[in-house]
Write a structure and sequence with these properties.
7 strands; Alpha-D-Glucose-1,6-Bisphosphate, Chain A, domain 4; 7-stranded antiparallel β-sheet; 2 helices; alpha+beta
């Protein structure tokens, strides 16, 4: 992963880490709280029943695509990362959620994301799209958990 090209943001959510894990660690449920994810279906699971391959239809800003993401659980329960397996337009979609239990029933969630498209897009526009996607996802996650 090209770390220098990764967009990243954090938010503190007034919810215990277990509540956040139950939402974030269920990619099939993302459409219930994320407006950018129109559908999600699990294609494969690991021995513990966790999604390892998920097909999603995403619409983030001008980007609408069908993607298949591979999830890496090796650093769970405080870190979940994903990489792009296949897509119609995207050539890269690498990301991760990192959770930090603040010890006071609040949790800090950090979301990192790198995307690349099959068509040329100025770096400034790509970075803005990544940041907008991250900010929206974190905002909607917070709204869902604090409702």
């Amino acid at each position: 992963m090209r770390m220098s090209d990764t967009s990243k943001s954090s938010i503190t959510i007034d919810a215990p880490i277990a509540d956040i894990q139950s939402l974030l660690f269920d990619p099939a449920g993302y459409p219930e709280w994320s407006s950018a994810i129109k559908s999600a279906s699990v294609q494969a699971k690991d021995g513990e029943g966790r999604a390892t391959k998920v097909e999603m239809v995403i619409k983030a800003g001008q980007v609408k695509d069908r993607v298949i993401l591979d999830y890496d659980w090796s650093e769970a329960p405080t870190h979940l990362s994903f990489t792009l397996d296949d897509a119609d337009m995207l050539t890269e979609m690498t990301g991760a959620y990192t959770l930090l239990d603040n010890g006071d029933e609040t949790t800090t969630v950090t979301y990192e994301l790198t995307v690349a498209l099959s068509m040329p897009v100025p770096a400034m526009m790509r970075t803005k799209a990544e940041r907008d996607t991250i900010e929206l996802a974190l905002k909607e996650l917070k709204e869902k958990l604090e409702a």
